Amino acid sequence: LLTRREQLVGMAVAERNRVGTAPAALRPSLNEHLTWLKNQLQQLDRDIDEFIDQTPVLKEKEERLREVQGVGRQTAAKLLASVPELGDCTRKQIAALIGTAPYNQDSGRGHGPRSIRGGRPEVRKLLYMATLVATRFNPVIRRFYQRLLQAGKLKKVALVACMRKLLTILNALVRDGSHWQPTLAS
Fold first, then answer.
1. Distances from the Cα of 107 to the Cαs of 22, 111, 117, in angstroms?
2. Once rounded to an integer, what is the mean pLDDT over residues 160-181?
């Protein structure tokens, strides 16, 4: 269901881009297709919600994930579908699995910059967007991000560190079956 949703979103973006450059004679057809895509997306969203609601384990995990500011319905669903290991891994394992773990580029006496790679890029993209939201609305992630920036870290480096922290928090919530308590977690 999520894969089909992503396909429809891609089609809708393409059609919206075409509307701006299409001849006037084609615009009604494009708008009709956009309306159809919008209806299909709404139906898929209902189907995804229904599937999660009918599966008690997924419903409980989704509720835990959505308690965290920055994680919405689509993010939680994608994490549940694409990272079934969530809650079963250590913080280092989950960071490596998703591709947010820093890897060195050292050789001999030379020390290169650390970078992230590998993992599951589609989840990493989703986590990036969730982290952008979290740096504004999640008190724990916002404080962490600001502290890193004040320490002189580049914005992208600080954001990746926040991605890892958010992922660690989500992993712990699912693992422990606990509720999000921003004053205790940091």
1. 54, 7, 18
2. 93
